[in-house]
Amino acid sequence: EIVLTQSPGTLSLSPGERATLSCRASQSVTSNYLAWFQQKPGQAPRLLIYGASSRATGIPDRFSGRGSGTDFTLTISRLETEDFAVYYCHQYGYGRDTFGQGTRLEIK
Amino acid sequence: QVQLLQSGTEVKKPGASVKVSCKASGYTFTSYDIEWVRRATGQGPEWIGWMNPNTGRTGFAQKFQGRVTMTWNTSITTAYMELSSLRSDDTAMYYCARYHPVLRNGFDVWGQGTVVTVSS
């Protein structure tokens, strides 16, 4: 199975700053089917990015994804208060899905 | 609007089975896979498996093979995930999500989650 390793485990930033989250795969992600989710306490996950770089419906353009193969990045250009949450990467598409352990984005 | 509504909290004893339902509305039920994911406290999400109500196909993560069953009732647009031989480490929040197998645009709609607690 493909192991997804996210870093850092916790990221402490202030509103207005730029956040860069990393997701590294143990082997190449087929067709770059890599997604990013945001999850807040007591809420279901929210899809942000799919296909490594496509924003999901209704996602603000301050969220962007890039990468291919084994290295992927989620960038939040200017943090807003509502962006502080846990973020997970997810490789999918071929019936052997796996998720990363998450990056907690907290207010500094 | 598009929605997945899951059944309520379950408390089970070790060795028992649990069946979680996921009622879909606002879209064509047979056009999307239903995926099942769980997340234990303090851990990352874990994929359980998928089902396609149009083709009848299912697929499961290896660790759940033989212990999970996925079914559905198209007439009431509801999917079910049953997990048997429960252990304490099955305690988690269980989610259903939809996935378009052709568009492949990720798990774009999620249920609200069902808490499953396994305790003697």
Indicate the mean pLDDT of chain A: 96
The largest sheet of chain B is: 7 strands, mixed
Shape of chain A: globular
User: What does the overall shape of chain B look like?
Assistant: globular
Distance between the termini of chain B: 40 Å
Report the portion of residues of chain B in β strands.
Answer: over 45%
Greatest interface and its participating residue counts = A-B, 27 and 23 residues
| Class computed from helices, strands and strand pairing of chain B | mainly beta
Which assembly state applies to the chains in this document?
A: heterodimer
- Main β-sheet description of chain A: 7 strands, mixed
In terms of DSSP E residues, the strand content of chain A is: over 45%
Kindly provide the radius of gyration of chain B, computed on alpha-carbon positions and rounded to a whole number of angstroms. 14 Å
- Segments of chain B where pLDDT lies below 50 for 5+ residues? none
- Using only C-alpha atoms, the radius of gyration of chain A works out to 13 Å
| Total helical elements of chain A | 0
Mean pLDDT of chain B: 97
Strand count of chain B: 11
N-to-C CA distance of chain A: 35 Å
Written overview of the protein:
The complex is a heterodimer of chains A (108) and B (120). Chain A is mainly beta. In chain A, 0% of the residues lie in helices and 49% in strands. Chain A contains no helices and eleven strands. In chain A, strands 2, 4, 5, 6, 9, 10 and 11 form a seven-stranded mixed sheet that branches. A four-stranded antiparallel sheet of chain A has the order 1-3-8-7, with no helix packed on it. The mean pLDDT of chain A is 96. By secondary structure, chain B is mostly beta strands. In chain B, 0% of the residues lie in helices and 50% in strands. Chain B has no helices and eleven strands. In chain B, the strands form two sheets. In chain B, strands 2, 4, 5, 6, 9, 10 and 11 form a seven-stranded mixed sheet that branches. Chain B has a four-stranded antiparallel sheet with strand order 1-3-8-7, with no helix packed on it. In chain B, a hairpin with a 6-residue loop joins strand 5 and strand 6. Chain B is globular. The mean pLDDT of chain B is 97. Chains A and B meet through strand 5 and strand 10 of A and strand 5, strand 9 and strand 10 of B.
